[in-house]
Amino acid sequence: MMTGDRQQDPRGARAITSRRRVLTAAALAPVLTATSPAPARGLSTGTTGAGHGKRVKPVPTELGHWAGVAKALGREGNMLRGTMYHTGFPRRDLLVVSDGVVVTPGLALGTHVAFVRYADGSTMVMGDVVVTEDELQHVIDAWQAHGIEQTALHKHLLAQTPDLWWAHVHGHGHDAVALARGLRAGFDRTGTPPAVAPDRSTPVDLDIARMEAALGAKGSVEDGLYKILFVRRETVADGHLILPPGLGSTSAFNFQPVGGGRAALSGDCVMRADEVPHVLKALRSGGIKLVELHNHHLSEDPRLFFTHFWAVDDGVRLARALRRAVDATDVVPGG
């Protein structure tokens, strides 16, 4: 091409026009491909908006209703609040050290999955699964092959050995046993050991009475740890499915005694968006380290965020710091 007052060569102009047509076609190809029909999907797996149909409530169930799920998972579970069938898969096979503390399975290494039956006959499963970095991609591939979705991938701890990740899983369908088999396909790609009954008799070297007074709630002792739970006040829905209180929307604080009334704290706090800055500030002002800020769901209403945190300090001092974070959120003790 000539510039200024020189004449443009017609053959050059035709060549440029031809090249432009080729480039335009190449640029449009991905757009045209993206408009092709997507593969067919089954029941909603959490992506149905609140405006797409009437919301469906969970229904009460009993342990006997979940016998097929227990068989598929390879271990027995328990009922929570009459509507959630819960099964734990603690990673007792791992020796994990974080911040100089040997992390017990109950403090931060507990895989949990919960099944809920709905009034339309469908079942939803949600869970939080501990995997090593070496296991992670293999586990995800197995779940995806069985229709189990991942809604979060994050950390519960700061620097730790070995390297660990926590994956949130989600499934929804009319065959609860098939969902359980899908989860099991992923678990079988990990070193998760067989079930062991929890020890509820181990004494805890913490001033629990003062900690509970500071937090304004009662907790429980299990496997040598002190645990306390808070749940959101408002009704939370994932798409058109109403979540039972405490399913994927709790603030959970775990204290592992380390001697002299001190504890290693690993926790997770649930927040609306407007609560997030207040909670993070409250935690940091209490000397608690922030680990992660993330979501558990893809389409919940109201939109919720979660922060994981860590600290090693006097148990009562930690409880007082946590109380300021609790008071910044709309929660009640979970029992």
Main attributes?
7-stranded antiparallel β-sheet; disordered N terminus; 8 helices; 19 strands
Condensed summary:
By secondary structure, the protein is an alpha+beta fold. The chain has helices at 10-34, 67-73, 105-108, 133-145, 176-187, 208-215, 276-285, 315-327, and strands spanning 78-80, 84-90, 96-98, 101-103, 110-117, 123-132, 149-154, 160-161, 164-173, 220-222, 225-232, 237-238, 241-242, 250-259, 262-272, 289-294, 300-301, 304-314, 331-333. Strand 10 (220-222) and strand 11 (225-232) form a beta hairpin.
Give an account of the 3D structure.
The chain has 335 residues and is α+β, with helices and mostly antiparallel strands. The protein is built from 8 helices and 19 strands. The chain has helices at residues 10-34, 67-73, 105-108, 133-145, 176-187, 208-215, 276-285, 315-327; strands spanning 78-80, 84-90, 96-98, 101-103, 110-117, 123-132, 149-154, 160-161, 164-173, 220-222, 225-232, 237-238, 241-242, 250-259, 262-272, 289-294, 300-301, 304-314, 331-333. The strands form 4 sheets. Strands 10, 11, 14, 15, 16, 18 and 19 form a 7-stranded antiparallel β-sheet that branches. A 6-stranded antiparallel β-sheet has the order 1-2-5-6-9-7. Helix 2 runs parallel beside helix 5 (176-187), helix 4 packs antiparallel against helix 5 and helix 6 runs parallel beside helix 8 (315-327).
